[in-house]
């Protein structure tokens, strides 16, 4: 019986670990842009954040609640784009585990070209984070500059998920 309980506990631990990312892909702007275009027929929520950004960290639990609510909807996808430096990748992975982030996280390793790619995402984006951009069929449908409340996040998703 003791062995059975141990096996069950191990199984539960493995399921928990599997729900979180063990690795984070690092991409350049062009790869992220292709990824956004590829998510056809979906409402794609793209949140730009960093582990060192207090407002970003504050809003992430709301994003996870909303992601968990919609994750089984085939018309919905959330991607968290970390703007941490590539040398801090291990810290990002640890952060994912500690904060139980369930949405896909990628690391945008393109800091040197920020002045090039930021205006391509949104001409009015001044470079501050957090920023959340909503896409439907690869087209931007909403831009939110700054921290988002759970209510605003859900309202924007509901408006565009139709």
Q: What's the short story on this structure?
A:
It contains six helices and six strands; from the N terminus they run H-E-H-E-H-E-H-E-H-E-E-H.
What brief labels describe this structure?
globular; alpha/beta; disordered N terminus; Glutaredoxin; six-stranded mixed sheet; 162 residues; 6 strands
Structural commentary:
The chain is globular and about 40 Å long. Helices cover 46% and strands 22% of the residues. Strands 1-4-3-2-5-6 form a 6-stranded mixed β-sheet, with helices on both faces. The chain is of the alpha/beta class. The longest helix is centred in the N-terminal third of the chain and has 18 residues, at 2-19. Mean pLDDT is 87; it is low at 3-20.
| Main sheet: strand order | 1-4-3-2-5-6
The value of Rg in angstroms is 17 Å
pLDDT < 50 runs, ≥5 residues: 3-20
Overall tally of domains: 1
CATH architecture field: 3-Layer(aba) Sandwich
Mean pLDDT: 87
**Structural class determined from secondary elements:** alpha/beta
| Beta-strand percentage range | 15-25%
Helix content, binned percent: 40-55%
Name the CATH superfamily classification: Glutaredoxin
Oligomer: single chain
Structural topology:
Blueprint: H1 2-19, E1 25-27, H2 29-38, E2 43-49, H3 54-70, E3 76-82, H4 89-98, E4 104-108, H5 114-121, E5 131-136, E6 139-145, H6 150-160
Parallel strand pairs: 1-4, 2-3, 3-4
Antiparallel strand pairs: 2-5, 5-6
GO molecular function: isomerase activity
Keywords: Isomerase, Redox-active center, Signal
Protein name: Thiol-disulfide isomerase/thioredoxin
